[in-house]
Amino acid sequence: MSxxxxxxxxxxxxxxxxxxxxxxxxxxDFVLRDFxxxxxxxxxxxxxxxxxxxxxxxxCKPCKEELVAFQKLYEKYEKKFEVVAICEDTRKxxxxxxxxxxxxxxxFRMLWDKNCKVMREFQISVLPTTFIxxxxxxxxxxxxxxxKEYDKIIEEKILELIKEDLETN
Length: 169
Prior knowledge:
The chain is an alpha/beta fold. About 40% of the residues lie in helices and about 20% in strands. It is built from six helices and seven strands. The N and C termini lie far apart (about 60 Å).
């Protein structure tokens, strides 16, 4: 019986990993702390820039690949949007998460969801999962999983949101 349950869970995870998520239309507000304990709240930062929110963990190889892609995009567009990566690792693995940030030279905001509360609020079933928010907190794009070809889609969505900022500068 448990073998069948395990198989069903595995099938669900593989199916859920493909495609977009679309059950949320607006991002739930949340407050988390970064790896140094500094508080960050979504609603306080929404009107400044569009925001990419990415849920990841150190045990997830595609997560780490996607973080590197976000760093390149972040640098390419001179920080005209914000990347908020939310780590789902346990306290025991927090050192590993900090090492990923240092090794990959990630310069964007890195938050820790120590009880996975925000992950549940965003209805995350697969890591990585990414959301792009406009300045009003509307979810304009979301995706489960990571493939290299997603980089172009993310870039196009971000360009749509920062187009005015790029034209005025």
